[in-house]
């Protein structure tokens, strides 16, 4: 059992190198002992350096600690673990002990799993029912425990001692180690823990969600809480600045903005309708029956409305393309009295210019990449139809 793991802030030390295993472009530095935590028990491996060279992985191999580095070292390994990552993950892990231990004891809900994300952490608990009130009660009580600064003791019990607190399946190890928080938690665990609860600083329970096995409860504590709060504060400040409101009025600002968008959309629709009506008037006044045109200033939806209204209300046919940046939408549509089949003509264009879409004898349409030649082809088709009609 690695006794260095009993001291959460032991993050620097010299260790004798007992071997180097050279691989292709990296090597494993072997030591009998290490301050680097090897991933396990739900806790991630430590990051840090050996003689200033980054340790990329750490494993326990054949009785030795093996540290993966790109570079060469010999003699003494000066190990330095990144303190910030150590503090944050140990706080999260220790908070899980407290929260889960308290839930086990008070609500008799068993622990199913732990998880850690970038901005929050959590545990899945075997609750049948869960709600806001329970969540607040857990948060309040756990923070009271933090204030009372109960120690987290690391003990090495005999099998007989451990049996009084832990289930048999957790005792199948050569050496037993447990983390004990007063009468709240006694857990067989090989991870690193804070020495007492005040080092968790503060715990905030964020939310919960039902799972097939129980409930996931999301929480945040200590350095992760401060870091995430800082990040959220920056986002809120930016939002408040952009909205031109104090932070507490951001929601009001968003509501106002949504109303403004709604009002503007109504005005936009009114103008679009006017533009479409004007264009229809102009197209209807043209001599030819079959018209071709490239529309540059309308969105596809309004373009479709223009085409369908024009051919419904007037004895006209459209061979139109709506152009938007590098995309286009082609529509061939005709008045009910006209004889040709729009879908067959559209197919010719679609094949030639790799357009998607289709339709029926009265209207056919589809989109694809814009090419100026599309309008030329549409104009030819319109001309030939004008001759037939
Ligand atoms: Zn633990």
Key features?
alpha+beta, Elongation Factor Tu (Ef-tu), domain 3, Diaminopimelate Epimerase, Chain A, domain 1, 5-stranded mixed β-sheet, binds zinc ion
How is this fold's topology laid out?
Layout lengths: L11 E11 L4 E5 L16 E3 L2 E3 L1 E5 L2 E6 L6 E6 L1 H25 L3 E6 L4 E5 L6 H17 L3 E4 L3 H5 L14 E4 L3 E4 L14 E8 L4 E7 H22 L6 H35 L5 E6 L4 H14 L3 E8 L2 E8 L7 H12 L4 E2 L3 E7 L3 H16 L1
Parallel strand pairs: 15-16
Antiparallel strand pairs: 1-2, 1-7, 2-6, 3-4, 3-7, 5-6, 8-9, 9-14, 10-11, 11-12, 13-14, 16-17, 17-19, 18-19
Helix pairs in contact: 4-5, 5-6
Bound molecules: zinc ion.
The site of zinc ion has 6 residues, from helix 1.
In short:
The protein is α+β, with helices and mostly antiparallel strands and 389 residues long.
Would you kindly provide a written description of the structure presented here, covering whatever features stand out?
Helix 5 runs parallel beside helix 6. It is elongated, with a radius of gyration of 35 Å. A seven-stranded antiparallel β-sheet has the order 4-3-7-1-2-6-5, with no helix packed on it. The chain has a five-stranded mixed β-sheet with strand order 15-16-17-19-18, sandwiched between helices. Strands 8-9-14-13 form a four-stranded antiparallel β-sheet. 31% of the residues are buried. The chain has three domains: 3-81, Elongation Factor Tu (Ef-tu), domain 3, CATH 2.40.30.130; 86-230, 2-Layer Sandwich (Threonyl-tRNA Synthetase, Chain A, domain 2); 286-388, Diaminopimelate Epimerase, Chain A, domain 1, CATH 3.10.310. The protein is built from eight helices and 19 strands. It is α+β, with helices and mostly antiparallel strands and 389 residues long.
């Amino acid at each position: 059992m690695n006794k260095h793991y009993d001291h959460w802030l032991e993050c620097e030390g010299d260790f004798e190198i007992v071997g180097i295993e050279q691989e292709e472009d990296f090597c494993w530095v072997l030591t009998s002992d290490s301050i680097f935590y090897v991933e396990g028990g739900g806790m991630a491996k430590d990051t840090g350096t050996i003689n200033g060279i980054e340790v990329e992985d750490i494993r326990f191999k054949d009785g030795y600690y093996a540290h993966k580095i790109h570079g060469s070292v010999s003699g003494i390994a000066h190990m330095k673990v990144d303190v910030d990552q150590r503090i944050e993950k140990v706080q999260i892990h220790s908070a899980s002990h407290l929260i889960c231990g308290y839930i086990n004891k008070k609500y008799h809900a068993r622990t199913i799993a732990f998880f850690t994300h970038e901005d929050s952490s959590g545990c899945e608990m075997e609750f049948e029912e869960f709600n806001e009130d329970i969540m607040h009660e857990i948060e309040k009580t756990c923070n009271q425990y933090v204030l009372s600064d109960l120690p987290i003791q690391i003990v090495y019990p005999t099998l007989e001692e451990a049996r009084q607190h832990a289930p048999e399946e957790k005792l199948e190890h050569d050496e037993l180690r447990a983390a004990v928080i007063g009468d709240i938690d006694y857990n067989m665990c090989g991870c690193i823990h804070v020495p007492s609860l005040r080092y968790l600083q503060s715990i905030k329970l964020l939310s919960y969600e039902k799972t097939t096995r129980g409930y996931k409860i999301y929480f945040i504590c200590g350095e992760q809480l401060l870091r995430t709060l800082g990040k959220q504060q920056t986002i809120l400040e930016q939002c408040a600045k952009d909205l031109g409101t104090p932070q507490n009025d951001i929601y009001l600002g968003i509501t106002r903005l949504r109303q403004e968008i709604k009002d503007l959309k109504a005005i936009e629709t009114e103008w679009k309708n006017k533009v479409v009506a004007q264009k229809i008037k102009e197209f209807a006044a043209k001599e030819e029956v079959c018209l071709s045109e490239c529309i540059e200033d309308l969105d596809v939806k309004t373009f479709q409305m223009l085409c369908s209204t024009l051919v419904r209300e007037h004895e006209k046919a459209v061979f139109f393309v709506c152009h938007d940046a590098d995309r286009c939408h082609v529509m061939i549509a005709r008045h009910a009295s006209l004889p040709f089949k729009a879908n067959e003509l559209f197919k010719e264009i679609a094949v030639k210019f790799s357009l998607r879409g289709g339709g029926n004898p009265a209207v056919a349409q589809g989109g694809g990449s814009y090419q100026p030649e599309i309008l030329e082809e549409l104009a030819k088709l319109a001309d030939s139809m004008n001759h037939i009609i």
